[in-house]
Design goal:
Length: about 130
């Protein structure tokens, strides 16, 4: 995507979002006032507590995460040790599109193919997608 080029994307509510390449980022504008943001969970403290408990059965950290998601270990209160990882891992404006760290923006337009999101920043009426 060339510097300064703006790509227009319609979301499911037919709201036009604009994606503009500025330096090593893509600035997203035109979304409504409602959007969700979120961060990944950090499972390290919960997994450490699990490993030191009588319930430890040799599960890897990934297997432990999967068991928590299936609610197998919630009764043992390991979920209370989950922490939010620093930074924003996704932003989801009303009507979309869902944008996440690691995403190739080419899924929205072939003109943005190969532009991978490294970091998401929320600005004044814009999202700034910092690129890898």
């Amino acid at each position: 995507m060339k510097e300064g080029l703006t790509i227009k994307v319609l979301n499911r509510y037919q709201t036009e979002l604009k994606f503009t390449k500025v330096g090593n980022e893509v600035v997203v504008s035109g979304f409504g006032k409602y959007y969700r943001i979120g961060s990944k969970n950090d499972y390290s403290k919960a997994y450490d507590k699990f490993c030191k408990s009588d319930l430890f059965d040799g599960k890897s950290e990934k297997e432990f995460e999967d068991a928590l998601h299936r609610s197998e270990l919630l009764s043992d209160n390991f979920s209370k040790y989950l922490e939010e990882a620093p930074g924003i891992s996704y932003v989801d404006p009303e009507g979309g599109p869902f944008l996440s760290v690691g995403m190739d923006l080419g899924i929205l337009s072939s003109s943005m193919k190969g532009l991978e999101v490294k970091e998401i920043l929320i600005g004044n009426e814009v999202f700034r997608l910092i690129l890898k």
